[in-house]
Amino acid sequence: MSKERPKVAVFSPYALEEGTPGGVKDYIKTLRQALGRKGVEVTVIGPSIKDDQDNLADYTLGSSVNVNMKDTSYRGAATFNVFKARKIINSEKPDNNEFHEPFANPLTVETVSLVAQKIPQIFHFHANTEELTRQQEILAFLARKSGFRKRVMNRASERHAVSPDTRGFWAGILEEPEDLYEVIPNPIDTELFSYKEGEKVE
To answer: Are 78 and 15 within 8 A, CB to CB?
Structure first.
């Protein structure tokens, strides 16, 4: 990114609702602050939520729905809205698109990629996943056999993971070399967790 003030569009599959717990949401908030200090402008795109005033996203793409797995559930979104995706990309003109947990919203990744194929895509993996349901196993099998998963991953300019275990998990699932993934740990607030010299730590 050689611009004087480069731009990054960050896509979240999860609802970015103020006042609710969420590791990806907190990561994106911290990322935006850190990049802002370096002169990088960050635009956040996430699913719509019931109360717009609590939505931390600058643009909404897709509606937030409950996604249920065996032991957990989350509020996520997928969209085929190519028109709206193109409108956001054309308006913001980002230098990079960053997708968090791309396989939590692969349809959104595919939709955005269709209208922004020449923009570098960064895929950021935050965690591994629990055991899949039977229906999810069938969908994963079809995604692999149809080439959908490979096509999505072929658009990734960079692959980031928050830990070596996360890198190993997704590299194994996607049948890719681990060295394709750069490990970037979740950020730590060093001011909050630092202490003065000589201060007793309990």
So the answer is: no
The predicted model gives 38-66 an average pLDDT of 84
Give the amino acid at 130.
E
pTM for the complete prediction? 0.78
Strand-by-strand arrangement of the 96-100 sheet: 59-63, 41-48, 7-11, 96-100, 121-125, 156-161, 181-183
CA distance 104 to 123: 11
Neighbouring residues of 153: CB distance < 8 A, sequence distance ≥ 6:
123, 174, 176
pLDDT at res. 179: 95
Q: Please report which helix (H) or strand (E) contains residue 184, including its range.
A: none
**Type of residue numbered 29:** K
Residue 134 has pLDDT above 60, yes or no: yes
